[in-house]
Each structure stands twice: as structure tokens, then as C-alpha cells.
Amino acid sequence: xxxxxxxxxxxxxxxxxxxxxxxxxxxxxxxxxxxxxxxxxxxxxxxxxxxxxxxxxxxxxxxxxxxxxxxxxxxxxxxxxxxxxxxxxxxxxxxxxxxxxxxxxxxxxxxxxxxxxxxxxxxxxxxxxxxxxxxxxxxxxx
Length: 142
Description:
The protein is an alpha+beta fold and 142 residues long.
């Protein structure tokens, strides 16, 4: 499983229930494929760095947006599931842009099976060697 961060920008005029159902659909897709949704965060409506163009005009005829709602989602899943999530987001009209990042965290190093490359395992092994040396020195002194 890979730890992903999905940052999406939705229309600032999007309905709360529409975005909630989209997040529910994406979360369900991740969980159905054996993944774990760690967090969904709504960062609110913010000014966009430049005008974003929507795929289709809305009911009022607006196609360009200068403000957008930023939402981030952190989840663990397979790369295949990540592509399915991207497909869901790309098909939704409320999403202006989305980006997937392979997020890193401390657990990536803990899960590393190569002992020589894992700093946590190396530290424990160093402590065990020091304890062994102290025991040997204690036996020599007796």
C-alpha cells in the first residue's frame, strides 16, 4: 500500500451535499479495494492563483472561477485504486483540478525491511550490541 495525498480544487459555488457525496463515493472506492482513508480536510474557499476554467459552464453561464474550495484527502491504497479515484474526480463536474502526491511519513522508514537502510532498526541493533558488550565486560570483571 502506498500513502497518497489527494488535493482537489472544487467550484466555490458547489453544494455541500454534492461535495459530501463525492467524498463518500471516493472513500467507498478506496475502502472497497482494501485501502484506508486516514483523513479528509476541507481547507475552505480561497482565492485561486489564476483563473481556472471549468469543463462545462454552470447554470448561470459561469465557466471561469477565481475562487475555489480546496479539499485534501489522505489515504493508503494500491496504485490501481489511486487511478480509479482520479477517474472519479476527473469525471465530476464540480472538481476543477486534482493532484495526487505520494506522501511520505515516518512509517515509510519503519516498514523498510533492509536493516542497513532502516535508521530505527540500526539504532536498536546498536543498543543491543552495547548491552552485549557491557554484559561481557561485567563477566570479565567478576
